[in-house]
Amino acid sequence: MSAIEVVNLVKTFRAGTDNIVRAVDGVSFKVEKGEIFGLLGPNGAGKSTIVRILTTIVQPTSGNARVFDHDVVLDPLNVRKQIAVVLQETAVETLLSVRDNLHIYGRLHGLSVLETQKRAAAVLEQFDLKDKQKEKAQDLSVGMRRRLQVAKVFMVDSPLLFLDEATTGMDPMIKRQTLDSIRDLSRQGRTIFLTTQLLEEAEALCDQIVILNHGKSIASGSLDRLRSLTKRRFHVSLRFASEQPEAFQALRSLNPISLTVESKDAEMQFEGEEAAIFEQLSKISQLYRIERFEIRGISLEEIFVELMTNVKRET
User: Fold this and answer.
1) Which residues have a Cβ under 8 Å from the Cβ of 36 and sit 6 or more positions away?
2) What is the DSSP letter of 136?
3) Superfamily of domain 231-297
4) Is the model more confident about 8 or about 196?
5) Spatial contact of 220 and 227, defined as CB atoms under 8 Å apart
C-alpha cells in the first residue's frame, strides 16, 4: 500500500461566465511510505490545488486520490487522521502565545498534558523559539510566524506530512535546521510531501519528484531519471598542480559548452557521453598534473529550466 496514490486527477474552476480553468489536468503519481516526495512547478502550475485535494480541503472534479488507501472524497475523516499540514497561508492562533499555540495543537491531536509539555519544550528548542515562547503570535514577524506554523506539525506523529512552501520567509539558519528536521522525520519512516519553488531544497531532500506545468505532469522520477530526460550535460571541475596556460588550451580543444579558468582551477560544462570526455581528460592529466578532479550532473534547477523551455517551444 502506497502512502498516496493519485490517478488521473482533474480539478476545474469557473473563471467568468464561459471560461473553465483546468487547474489540475489528468495528473497521476504514487508516493511510497517513507519517501520525501517533491511536487514542483511555476506559479499557477496546480501544486497547491493538489495539496488541497489530498488534504480534503477541496474535492476533485474527477479522478481518484487515496491516502493510505483512504479515498479523499469518500473517507475524508480517516485521511485527516493520517496527516499534518503546513499550507502557504500562515495558520496560527494570533491571539495566543507561541507556547500556547504548540500546546493547543498537541492537545487537539490527542496528546496528554505531560506529553504536550514535553514535546513543546523540544520543539521550542528545535526551532529557536524559546525566547519568543511568551509572545503572542500576532506580534511576531512574518518569518517567525511561518516558523511557528511549521513547528506545530512537529508536535505530532502523523505518518504523512504536507509542507506547502514551508520555508518561505525563514532566515537561512532556521531554514537549514528545518530541512535537517525533515530529513530526520523521513529516516524515522514518516512520509513527506513537499511543494517548493526553491529547487535547491527539492534537490537536497527529495527521493522522487513530479514537475507540473499548467496543471499537467511534464516529468517525474528520481533526480537521475529527470537528468536522463534532458540533454546529456554535466559539469567538470579540476585543479592543476600549477598555473599552465598550455593545459587550459588543451581543455579548450575538448570543445566544452563553457569553460571558466581562474589561476589553477577550471570549471567546464560538456554535452555528450561522460566516459568519452573522461578518457580525454585522463590523457590531459598524464601531461599536466591534476590535484583535484570532479564530475557532477546538472542541477535540478538546470533540468527544470530546460524542461520548461522545451514545453514552451512545443506549445
Assistant:
1) 182, 183, 186, 191, 192, 194, 205, 206, 207
2) B
3) ACT domain (3.30.70.260)
4) 8
5) no
The residues near 9 (Cβ < 8 Å, ≥ 6 apart) are 24, 26, 27, 28, 50, 53, 60, 62, 63, 64, 65
Would you state the cell numbers that stand for residue 50, as one nine-digit string? 493538489
What distance in Å separates the CA atoms of residue 4 and residue 79, rounded to the nearest whole number? Answer: 10
Question: In sequence order, what E strands does 52-99 have?
Answer: 62-67, 70-71, 83-86
Report long-range pairs for 132-135 (Cβ below 8 Å, ≥24 apart).
132/98, 133/97, 133/98, 133/99, 134/97, 134/98, 134/99, 135/97, 135/98
* Backbone phi and psi for residue 212, each to the nearest 5 degrees, phi listed first: -105, 150
In angstroms, the CA 33 to CA 31 distance is 7
180 in Cβ contact with 276 (< 8 Å): no
Distance CA 75, CA 77 (A): 6
Domain 4-227 is found in CATH 3.40.50.300: yes
Contact between 159 and 190 (Cβ < 8 Å) = yes
Q: Output the pLDDT for position 91.
A: 67
CA distance 304 to 233: 14
Same fold, 4-227 and 231-297: no
Domain positions in the chain are 4-227, 231-297
Asked if 153 and 164 count as a contact pair (C-beta separation under 8 A), the reply is no
- C-alpha closest to that of 205 among 238, 155, 163: 163
Average pLDDT over every residue of 173-184: 85
* Tens digits of residue pLDDT in 74-103: 999 999 999 988 876 666 777 889 999 999
Q: What per-residue confidence (pLDDT) applies to 178?
A: 83
